[in-house]
Amino acid sequence: MVFGATRLIDDIRKHTYREPQVPLEVVNYPVPPTSLVLEQVHVYVRHGERTPVGVRLASAPASIPEHWLLCKTARQFHTAVTNSTQDGLLRARHMVERADGSVIEGECLLGELTDLGRQSTHNFGKSLRALYVDRLGFLSDRLPNKDEVYFRSTNMPRTISSLQQVVHGLYPQDKCDTEVPPSIFVRNGKDENLLGNTSACKRLELLQVSFAQAAAAAYNPTLQHLDAHLSKYLNGNPVRVDGKPRASGIMDTIRAAIAHGIQVPPEFKDEQIVGTLERAIVNEWFADKTEEVRRLGMGRLLDDLTRKMQYKADNGSRDPLKVLVHSTHDTALAALCATLDVFDEQWPAFTASITFELFRKVETSTQPAADATISQTVLSKFKLRPPSQHYIRMRYQNQSMILPACAGKGKHLPGSPEFCTLEAFRDRVKELTPEDFEAECMPAGRFGI
Predict the structure, then answer these.
(1) How deeply is 404 buried, as exposed, middle or buried, from its count of CB atoms within 10 A (0-12, 13-18, 19+)?
(2) How far apart (Å, rounded) are the C-alpha atoms in residues 72 and 224?
(3) What angle do CA 323, 325, 331 make, to 5 degrees?
(4) Which string of DSSP letters, residue by residue, matches 419-449?
(5) Tell me, what DSSP letter sits at residue 418?
(6) What's the rounded mean pLDDT across residues 203-231?
(7) Bridge partners of residue 360, in order along the sequence
């Protein structure tokens, strides 16, 4: 079965339900107290809508398309080559060939960012611009130089393409210096920290496998009653965390279909059925696990974030870096939230995002008393000013997070618990940062057990 533009329009008319996808809030963005000045913003955004990563539920009666013709925009591209054309660019078309050699215009690869995903990530970039350029005046209207921004993606086509769209939404071509285009950074696999890197950390891989097995043992019994409703869509197979297909694979296909307006079986619109499935899946993939998993999964990323914020706090305007945008995956967003104890137990939507905002507290100047002597007035000007206080606010899906690590007295801005002191945040991250990542990633783990 093939799904393309004509059927897309028809299905959208018939089926208007969408998975919750929350645009970045601009109008109702909560402005901080006047004593706080924004210094730096770190953004972590999940890629946009994509096709399923595998073919599932393709046969009747589910009839979810096997082939998705939703990637027409992505098929035109330029690549730099030597002595190819006058401008040094080779213009080419990227086509998907099936096993039988046939080719259909606009067909997507499995797991590929679709035209809809490109639009939604471009819109996310436009929302960043509307907020941090137009409303807050924090970022420059035109990108003056590449030192003010930092863009990085995991080495996956869908996240790289998503980030390209975000960048052009934030700084369209007419707002950039054509001689100095923004750079997009990608790390080698062994150095990647924008997700739990099981390829570079054998210990983390073993722990994740053991947690998946535990989730199957704990949640498979809760899924048994769904067989009567759903097995007919799975060639008679039972619905299980570790089934064929896995429960996560079933919902991956369903969520991708719904996001693109593709009709799904009515059972997958039943809140009780979907809720039961997602509880099991979230526990397998995203649920809060152990301190060791937190250290090996997100510790390096949080350490990277904290170091950059501390450098900004120490150097102020001498550090020009203002915004850092990272394109990543649902597993990273969920893991960041779980590591900081604020995960809502919900599967992150396409283009879901987390922002960490760094603020500097502005000290109000005190004027000498009217009856102060001249010597007292002069001496007051030479008194050492206390170091500036800095605060971090974490926001996920437009909600300000109150971090448990910052709940204690003196660890947040009085009266505003969502503003965590940089010191308290840094102390928690230090506990989460591996002292020797390679050693802790050995199969025996940190303590050799």
Answers:
(1) exposed
(2) 41
(3) 145
(4) EEEHHHHHHHHHHHS-SSHHHHTSTTTTTT-
(5) E
(6) 96
(7) 37, 390
How many C-alpha atoms does 186 have within 13 Å on its Cβ side? 13
Using DSSP's 3-state secondary structure scheme, residue 327 falls into strand
Write out pLDDT tens, residues 80-111.
Answer: 555 545 556 667 788 999 999 999 999 999 99
Q: Which two tokens stand for residue 294?
A: 């937190």
Secondary structure of residue 3 in the 3-state scheme: strand
Which residue, chain included where needed, has tokens 């079933």? 250
Q: Is the dihedral of CA 9, 270, 52, 125 positive or negative?
A: positive
Please report the sign of the dihedral spanned by the C-alpha atoms of residue 49, residue 50, residue 56, residue 62.
positive
Structure tokens at 330: 């649902």
pLDDT category, 371, cuts 50, 70, 90?
Answer: low
Both tokens assigned to 67: 């082939």
Catalytically active residues are 47, 330
Q: Where are the beta strands (DSSP E) in 237-389?
A: 323-328, 353-361
Residue 5 to residue 11: CA distance in whole angstroms: 10
- The residues with which 329 forms a beta bridge, in sequence order, are none
Which tokens is 165 given? Answer: 């769209």
Find all residues with CB under 8 Å of 306, minimum gap 6, and list them.
425, 426, 429
Cβ–Cβ < 8 Å for 299, 441 = no
CA gap 423, 310 in Å, rounded: 9
DSSP letters spanning 147-196:
GGEEEEE-S-HHHHHHHHHHHHHHS-GGGS-TTSPPPEEE--GGG--SS-
Total Cβ atoms within 10 A of residue 439:
13
pLDDT at 12: 32
Q: Is residue 428 left, alpha or beta, with left meaning phi > 0 and alpha meaning psi from -120 to 50?
A: alpha
Burial of 388 (0-12, 13-18, 19+ CB in 10 A): middle
pLDDT of residue 73: 84
What is the reported pLDDT for 116?
95
What is residue 410's three-state secondary structure? coil
The Cβ of residue 335 has, within 10 Å, a number of other Cβ atoms equal to: 24
Give, in order, the Cα–Cα distances in Å from 34 to each of 128, 309, 333, 415. 21, 21, 30, 14
Sign of the CA dihedral running 147, 425, 302, 172: negative
